[in-house]
Amino acid sequence: MSGISSLVRTSSKLIRCGQTSARRSVYTTAVRLGEDKKQKDLDMASMAKKIDPKEAAARKAAEEATKRALAAKAAREAAEKKALEEKAAAEKAAKLAAQQEQAKKAAEKAAADKKAADAAAAKAAKEAAEKAAAKAAEKKAADAAEKAKKAAGKAREPVQQKSAEQDAKTSASGRVQTADSLGSRSEGAAKKAAAEATAAAAARKAQEDAAAEKASKEAAAKKAATEAAAKKAALEAAAKKAAQEASVKRAAEEAAAKKAAAEAAAKKAAEEAAAKKAAEEAAAKKAAAEAAAKKAAEEAAAKKAAEEAAAKKAAEEAAAKKAAEEAAARKAAEDAAAKKAVEEAAAKKAAEEVAAKKAAEEAAAQKAAEEEAIRNMQDPIQSLFLSSIRSASSAGGLENASPEIKAELESELERLAKQYGGQAGANMTDFPTFQFTDPDVDPINVSE
Length: 448
Description:
Elements: H1 2-49, H2 53-169, H3 172-375, H4 380-393, H5 403-419
Helix pairs in contact: 1-3, 2-3
C-alpha cells in the first residue's frame, strides 16, 4: 500500500510539472508576439508621422476655412434667433396691453353697473320711505279723528244724563232749552278737538315733507358727486389708455428698428459668407493642385514603404521560424525531463519492490523461525492460535482476501483519487499518460 501511495504522489507531481511547463511556454510565446506587434505599431506610427509640409498647410487652410464658415453660419443663426425673440417680445407686449385694456374696460363697466344699481336701490328706498311716512301720517290723522269723535261722544253722555234729570224736575219748555244749550256746547268741543287734530296732522305732514325734501336734496348731491367721480375715472382711464397705446406704438417701432437691424446684419453676414465661399473655392482649387503633387509623392513613399514592409515581413518570418524552433527545442527538453522523471519513478518503484521483496523474505524467514519455535512448544492454546494464523496466511493474497480487506483497499484507492484529482472509477495504480500539444500561433502579416 505504501508503494502505491508513493507512486500516485510521484505521478501527480509529474503532471503538475508538465502543466506548469506548458503554461510557461505559452506565456513566453504570447509575450514575444505582443512585443513584435508593439514594434510593428510603432513603425506604422512613425511612417504616419512623415507628412508632406504642403499637405499639412493645405489641410490647415481647409480647416480654417471650415471654421470661418461655421462661425459665419452661427452668427447668422444668432441674428435670426435674436430677431425672432424681439418680434415675440413685441407681440407679447401688444397682447399684454390689449389684455390690460380689456380688463380696464370690464372694470369700468362693472363700476358703472354697480353705481347704477346703487342709485336705483337708493331711489327705491327713498320712495318706500316716503310712502311709509304718508301712510303713517294718514293713520295718525285717522286715529286722532277717531279719538276726537270718541271724546265728543263721552262728553255728550253726562250732559244728556244731566238734562234728563232736570227734565224730570222742570217743565217741558225748560227741558228743551237746557238740552239745546248743552248740545250746542258739546258740538263746539268736538269741533275744537277735530280742528286741533287736523292742525297737528298738518304740522306733522309739513315736517315729513321737509324731511323728504332734505333727503331728496342729499340724494341729488350724492348722485352729482358720483357722476363727477365717474367722469374723473373715465378721464383717467382715457389718459392711461392713451399712455398704453403710446407705449405699445413705441415698442412696435423699436421692434421694427431691431428687425431692420437684424435683416441688415443677416444681409451683411450673407455677403461675407459669399466672399468667404469664393475664397474657400480658390483655396480648395489650390489645395487640389497641391494634393495632386502630394499624391505623387505619397505613391513614391508608399512604394518605398511596401519594400520596407516586405523586408520587415521577411525578418519577422525568420524571427517567427526561430521562435518556433526554440519552442520545439524547449518542448523536446520538457519531454526529456518528463521521460527522465518517469524513468526515475520506475527506478524508484523497482527499488521499492526490491526492498519490499527483501522485507517479505526477511518476514518469511522470521515467520519460519517462529513456526519452528512454535512447533517446539507444546501449549494447546498456543497451538490453536498458531493454527488460526496458518489458515489466515494460506488464504492466497488479495485475490482471495476477505470482503472486509477488499473494501478497505477500495476505500483507500477512492481516497487517493479524490485527494489527487482522479476521476470517478479511475485506476490509481496505473501510471498516468501525458499529451503535449503545440499552441496555435497567428501568422504575422505586415501588410495587414
